[in-house]
Write a structure and sequence with these properties.
heterodimer; A: alpha/beta; Ubiquitin-like (UB roll); Alpha-Beta Plaits; Rossmann fold; 5 domains; seven-stranded mixed β-sheet; six-stranded mixed β-sheet; 27 helices; 29% helix; globular; B: alpha+beta; three-stranded antiparallel β-sheet; 6 helices; 5 strands; elongated; iron-sulfur (chain A); iron (chain A); NADH_UbQ_OxRdtase_75kDa_su_CS (chain A)
Chain lengths: 817, 180
């Protein structure tokens, strides 16, 4: 008995960088610096806790995780909080399972926490999934000795339109305040008062306005923070949970979709350490009511002789669509897929164009785009998977440069990673942009509270001059990028001629890895699936005869049937449609107001002979369409996205999928009516075929080399327009979400002080930005933009830049007070 | 031959015994006071609903007969004291087994059972009782919700002073459970 442990010790040396300790009589090796509570977890010993969260810094705020600790044979005088104490060699730890002292201490803490906690579990939204409820049952006393009146506060207190605060329930664990400060970096929420009156609160004039506030609801271990949209909607035991993937942006967040009786009631961030860790953004969390929007199209519609869309049967609608398209095949068919498709759907669109419509006129880009972009994507992006650049690699990079990419607004989880890297590993995050946006400030290495002062990590450029600035980047930025740096480029780079070329050149010069982060979830997948005018599936160039032969063989086509000439891009397709060069269009989820010239796009849609629209909601396209075919939302179908890393993100239906069809099935049936077989009846079939095709032989596609252009010089009363879209704005998929819309950043026209003076603008007063198409009026806010530049949010309330002004990033606009 | 008279003897002697038959449709004998009959959603003495829509009854139900959706009381439309009320409340009597676990689960004593047992119908739809059917009738002194809280400033007043308030007006029968 006494000899055996000695032998064991000799047989098992402590690994390098580890310490050996005893927990509840079990000997365990733990890496140095590990928190005691984590070591317990690894052993399967659960110590109750509230404030501890693996992704937040230790706080020791709730004192629930007390354990008895013995160091070097001497017991510590009092029980210690295991969430703040790191492991040490020779430590002997006794948790509540083996130590009556620890058990009593935990019971005592629980009793104190419950003193002011109201007994309103029956009406609390957390009831049934509440750590306080569970741990009060598992480690609390059976009764309370407290007989006095509990402290009460008015409740609920809305700290934003979507987060409700109940201070009575709060146990002051500070998870929410630590999340806001450490992870999101927008600490609008904090502890107020002292002692028994200590409480969570917000500043009177500053609402809790963060893109990540929903996470505080999810990590709150009691019902102190609850969601306004989910308030009293259901109980945990009513919900059926399905793992899903967020459809809003290219971050590719895992999420949990909770449904009750055929309705999605809420969405939570899924736990995927490789991608979104445990976080998501408020848009992903709250914007799902479009599923039940009254604008949803549920039945196919055909435009009758009187010009009115009439609901009809699938058979009739598909016959009408197929007849129209078959007749138009001679005149040419264009296929506009849209940027929100799953990989499978995008593949079906690409195959439909080639096999059924006999054309390469297919494009997924429903936004400003360029030929340079296609070259860039073919050279740097297509076929690239997470092995080249993923979140982990991004986090580990010593320096990152964001080009035409506003991470917080366009891919919030990428922003969280950049902030984490800047905060934890001292990563240098440079932004090539116009002004010190909140994201720029919060990814600066000085990552204290977001301060309005300019940070050193912004490389400022006049809109349109980004390519030139990139060619002559400051020396310290180039030096930082050299050796393992990463360049993240956004889809907005297409709006600046030469910018993609400059990114290519910079990457070649510094050896930095290039990551392309589009704004929409489907763009990356559509690129790889071949919904592109110049590329077949797997990045095979359409001009390459060998690649075409490979695809022809796989698709069972006769040799030489695939069209050989590169197709037209979205703008060219719509322009051709407007002048009758194309006889018909098949349009997926595309909003003409997102394109560079909405008027021209609408003209194309209006003038084309035959228009088939595959849509979920009524839109500008369905209003003009001859045949409207409803398609399934993600909640009612299976499929997958490629996120910006190129990582496949599969999801299964969360709701009953009967009665709705995904795009790939609709296109398959439509093609059959046109005597062509796509074999994409189900997303699984499409994914299987695409998987078998694999990647094409890597032909070294030439990087684009478009020279930078001179930026426009504003004349008197003019300014150069800088614009991008905000995360929470008037997006089509964020409809019917008043709680979410309430946390949108207010829309301002931003100029610097000198420009404001020159143009006669006053901070806070309205300014009118106009072109010959229209005018946008917004209050003025001062920011550190370059001289002669005005910034507008792209699609926010009262600032629909493309559709109203018809102008974009880098264009000249008139500005008056 | 003797057997013949013996048989009639039984019939004849029974004619003088007390009849146990219930003349059910004509007579309507009440069931025992604690019979597990139809449910009732009770009201506070001012007519506000006691149900807070917490779904604990639905959770307790072994037959999955109860469906509840909560709702948010607003200043304009208040159905119960406090923040939450039962917006949708349905009991499916085709499923209910009358076990009474829901009654035990109810934290506000909103849900009780009456001794009313006549629940038969010729279609399924009508046997799903909705909130309107289950709510206790308005007694004198009660007011049809939505209306503001008449008996206190918050829900605590209703719960703490509930018994006193109920005794104040002896005519009101806040429980109202017995079919008489």
């Amino acid at each position: 008995m006494t000899i055996a442990p000695e032998e064991k010790k000799e047989a098992r040396p402590v690994p390098e960088g580890h310490v050996r300790l005893t927990i509840d009589g079990l000997e365990v090796d733990a890496p140095k610096g590990e928190l005691l509570i984590r070591t317990c977890e690894r052993l399967g010993i659960i110590v109750p806790r509230f404030c501890d969260h693996p992704l937040l810094d230790p706080a020791g705020a709730c004192r629930q995780c007390l354990v008895e600790v013995e160091m070097g044979g001497r017991p510590m005088p009092k029980p210690q909080a295991s969430c703040t104490m790191t492991v040490a060699d020779g430590m002997v730890v006794k948790t509540q399972h083996s130590s009556p002292v620890a058990a009593k201490a935990q019971e005592g803490v629980m009793e104190l926490l419950l003193i002011n906690h109201p007994l309103d579990c029956p009406i609390c939204d957390k009831g049934g999934e509440c750590p306080l409820q569970n741990q009060a049952m598992s480690t609390g006393r059976t009764d309370s000795r407290f007989v006095d009146t509990k402290r009460t506060f008015p409740k609920p207190l809305p700290i934003s339109t979507q987060v409700l605060l109940d201070r009575e329930r709060c146990v002051l664990c500070q998870r929410c305040t630590r999340f806001s400060e450490e992870i999101g970096g927008d600490p609008f929420i904090d502890l107020l008062e002292r002692g028994a009156h200590q409480q969570i609160g917000v500043a009177e004039d500053k609402p809790f306005q963060s893109y990540f506030s929903g996470n505080t609801i999810q990590i709150c271990p009691v019902g102190a923070l609850t969601s306004a949209a989910y308030r009293f909607r259901s109980r945990p035991f009513d919900l059926v949970s399905t793992d899903g993937v967020c459809e809003h942006c290219a971050s590719g967040c895992a999420q949990r979709v909770d449904t009750r009786r055929g309705t999605v009631l809420r969405r939570l961030a899924g736990n995927d350490p490789a991608v979104n860790e445990e976080w998501n953004c408020d848009k992903g969390r709250f914007a799902f009511r479009y599923l039940g929007s009254p604008e949803r199209i549920t039945r196919p519609m055909v435009r009758g002789a009187d010009g009115v869309l009439v609901e009809t049967s699938w058979t009739e609608a598909l016959t009408a669509a197929a007849e129209g398209l078959t007749a138009a095949r001679e005149g040419g068919i264009g296929v506009l897929a849209g940027g929100r498709l799953t990989v499978e759907d995008a593949y079906a669109y690409g195959k439909f164009a080639r096999v059924a419509a006999h054309t390469n006129d297919v494009d997924f880009r429903a936004r400003p785009h360029s030929a340079e972009e296609l070259e860039f994507l073919a050279a740097h992006v297509v076929g690239q998977g997470p092995e080249v650049l993923d979140y982990a690699r991004l986090e580990a990079a010593p320096a990152v440069l964001c080009v035409a990419f506003e991470p917080e607004e366009e891919s919030p989880i990428v922003f969280l990673r950049l902030r984490k890297a800047a905060r934890k590993h001292g990563q240098q995050v440079f932004h090539l942009g116009q002004w010190t946006t909140p994201a720029v400030a919060r990814t600066s290495r000085d990552t204290g509270a977001a301060s309005p002062a300019a940070k050193d990590n912004l490389v400022r450029s006049v809109p349109g001059a980004e390519a030139a600035v990139l060619a002559e980047l400051p020396e310290h930025v180039v030096a930082a990028l050299t050796g393992g740096g990463v360049i993240l480029v956004g889809e907005r780079a297409a709006e600046v001629p030469g910018l993609y070329s400059a990114v290519s050149a910079l990457a070649a010069r510094t050896g930095a890895v290039v990551g392309w982060v589009p704004r929409r979830a489907g763009e990356r997948g559509a690129l790889d699936a071949g919904a592109v005018p110049t590329l077949l599936p797997g990045g095979r160039p359409v001009t390459d005869a060998a690649a075409r032969a490979e695809i022809e063989a796989a698709w069972g086509l006769a040799a030489g049937t695939l069209p050989t000439a590169p197709g037209r891009d979205t703008d060219e397709i719509l322009a051709a449609a407007a002048i009758g060069e194309l006889a018909a269009l098949v349009v997926g989820g595309l909003d003409p107001h997102d394109l560079a010239d909405p008027a021209a796009a609408l003209a194309g849609l209006r003038e084309v002979g035959f228009l088939v629209s595959l849509e979920m909601h009524t839109s500008a396209v369905t209003e003009l369409a001859d045949v409207v075919l409803p398609v399934a939302p993600d909640a009612q179908r299976s499929g997958s996205y490629l996120n910006w890393e190129g990582r496949r993100r599969e999801f299964t239906p969360a709701l009953d999928a009967s009665g709705v069809l995904p795009d790939c099935r609709v296109l398959d049936t439509l093609a059959v009516e046109m005597d062509a077989d796509l074999f994409t009846q189900t997303p699984a079939a499409a994914a299987g075929e695409l998987g078998r095709l694999g990647l094409g032989a890597r032909t070294a596609a030439a990087a684009p080399s478009v020279p930078p252009v001179e930026p426009l010089r504003p004349a008197f009363g003019q300014a150069v327009l800088a614009t991008w879209r905000q995360l929470v704005d008037d997006a089509a998929l964020a409809v019917d979400e008043p709680a979410l819309a309430g946390t949108a950043r207010p829309a301002f026209a931003r100029v610097n002080a000198a420009t404001a003076e020159r143009l006669g603008l006053v901070e806070g007063q309205p300014a009118t930005v106009r072109t010959d198409r229209g005018a946008v009026t917004l209050p003025v806010a001062l920011a550190d933009l370059p001289d002669g530049v005005v910034w507008l949010p792209g699609n926010s309330d009262g600032s629909r830049v493309r559709s109203v002004l018809g102008a974009g990033h880098g264009d000249l606009v008139g500005v008056t007070a | 031959m003797f057997e013949f008279f013996k048989g009639f003897g039984v019939t004849f002697s029974t004619m003088f015994k007390k009849v146990v038959t219930e003349e059910y449709p004509e007579n309507f004998p009440p069931a025992a006071p604690r019979y597990h009959g139809r449910h009732q959603l009770n009201r506070h003495p001012d007519g506000l609903e006691k149900c807070v829509g917490c779904e604990l009854c639905a959770w307790a139900c072994p037959a999955d007969a109860i469906y509840v959706e909560g709702g948010d009381n607003t200043e304009e439309a208040r159905y119960s004291p406090g923040e939450r009320f039962g917006a949708i409340y349905q009991i499916n009597y085709l499923r209910c087994i009358g076990c009474g676990l829901c009654i035990e689960a109810c934290p506000t004593r909103s849900l009780t059972m009456t001794n009313f047992y006549e629940m038969a119908d010729d279609n399924r739809q009508d046997l799903i009782y909705t909130k309107e059917q289950l709510l206790a009738p308005l007694l004198p002194g009660m007011e049809q919700p939505p209306h503001p809280m008449r008996l206190g400033n918050d829900e605590q007043d209703y719960y703490v002073q509930g018994p006193t308030l109920a005794r104040k007006n002896p005519e009101t029968d806040p429980v109202g459970e017995q079919v008489k």
